[in-house]
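Thread: iron/sulfur cluster complex, take 2
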Amino acid sequence: MKLRLILGDQLSSHISCLKDASSQDVILMCEVRSEATYVKHHKKKIAFVFSAMRHFAQSLTDRGLNVRYIPYDAPQNQGSLRGEVNAALKDLHIDGIVVTEPGEHRLLAEIQSWGREFNVPVSIRPDTRFLATHEDFTTWASGRKQLRMEYFYREMRRKHQVLMDVDGPIGGQWNYDSENRKPPKEGLDVPDPFDMPPDAITQDVLSLVDVHFADHFGDLFPFSFAVTREGALGALEMFINQRLNQFGDYQDAMVQGQPWMFHSHIALYLNVGLLQPLECIRAAEQAYHRGQAPLNSVEGFISQILGWREYVRGIYWLKMPHYKGTNFFAAKRDLPDLYWTGQTKMNCLRQCILETKQNAYAHHIQRLMVLGNFALLAGLDPDQVNDWYLLVYADAFEWVELPNVHGMVLFADGGTLASKPYAASGAYIKKMSNYCNSCSYKVGLKNGPKACPFNYLYWDFMQRNGGKLRGNPRLGFVFKTLDRMSDEKRAASRADSARFFQALENRENV
Ligand code: FAD
Ligand code: DLZ
Ligand code: SF4
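Output below.
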């Protein structure tokens, strides 16, 4: 009899650890304190994972499989995966444990120790739900001086024959990024987001989370995520029919009061296994062939899943565990309270934090160019920033969170993932959003107490880190501008930043 462990982000009917499962085996699924609190996940994220786990367990039982499901509030709950595996081994006649490789290095290391600890064979199978295997990525990466997503993505397009003609990419270009940076127009008509009313199982979970995780960040109600494969497919269909059309144009745009924009909101479903990457890609590709969505939108969406999603996973497994310990800028400032409270006069930050708190969601540009940009410019400690991102978003699992935050946002890896830090002044946020219209600060002012903090923090960051960044060819223009600045102007940015950091430390409302 085998013990087959299914984790909270392995909710796919074809998951590799179930491949040869029989009704003689025991499928172990457990809601445990260790996984829910090793970072204090957003309440909505815990509710999503637990409810999706319960629905998935039901579907396995319906398939005739023997599921040992341990609810969070079961009196005998051991509080950890190790504890539950141990309990199952004591209760049952198990001759082997079968697991699909987990999405975090931390858990992989733990599971690898179980064989010795429990004196039972442990088989760890590859996670076949991705489009590039570890070997594919390692082969692609080996011998390259620089790893860049765009080249990896092109290979994936060829390999999976996505948006390809006989002669090359459909439309003649590999990407349409330059068309996908439109600022928001006045009066954009954004469709309502997907909304799945909680069923009885979800209602039970919501009550449980409300009681047991009251001190965790985030709003539990209203809860409208899908928690089943059918629901997730409905969310995908709604995106393809209602949002994909404008996804490309407004991919980078931010509008106050519009957290969902034209994004798909499917990352959480992909990451727990309710959706498969290729089916999302093909759905978008078919919408293009039907004439339902333009190429810039379809290619833009597909590149996120076939390109970025696979690329960051490749980087994670290639570079961990060393990756997490890197800190290129030696950044060490504590994460300020405003990331939890949203209390700041910087309107862009306030909006993005409050939406994150409400929805366990923020779209890519909010994560990168507002929340992340501030963390980079302010020199926040990478470990604290990583923990924040890992716990606040419903789609956050370390294999995807860490490269995005540590690499793309903080450049803590020194350029393994991205060719330059995504640092920006207030001008970028002004161009791509309407946040500045309702801000206490003036985005047009570069210095002084009324000036937009992003403006002086940007130049302070470049001065502070010039020694490490000057050689970067993609920043040549930035340093030329800095060198042309008068000494007074450079000093003003440093003085404004010092005043700002002091106020932050004094817990003033900055
Ligand atoms: P859409 O904008 O509709 O994009 C479609 C899909 O593409 C997403 O569902 C996602 O699966 C994939 N995708 C898009 N961008 C990326 C990317 N950079 N890396 C990997 N996949 C991508 N994504 C996560 O899934 N989990 C995270 O924990 C996470 N943390 C992030 C942290 C930061 C600082 C940044 C800048 C990005 C992060 N991303 C993360 C990537 C991206 O922001 C989210 O995938 C996206 O916002 C999810 O919303 P969506 O489903 O509406 O995506
Ligand atoms: C995210 C999460 C949470 C909140 N809770 C559980 C849980 O109780 N049981 C479980 O098996 N998995 C949970 N997960 C998902 C795991 O943390 C996830 O499998 C690892 O982070 C690896 O990606
Ligand atoms: Fe953000 Fe600066 Fe604009 Fe205020 S002025 S919303 S701080 S970019």
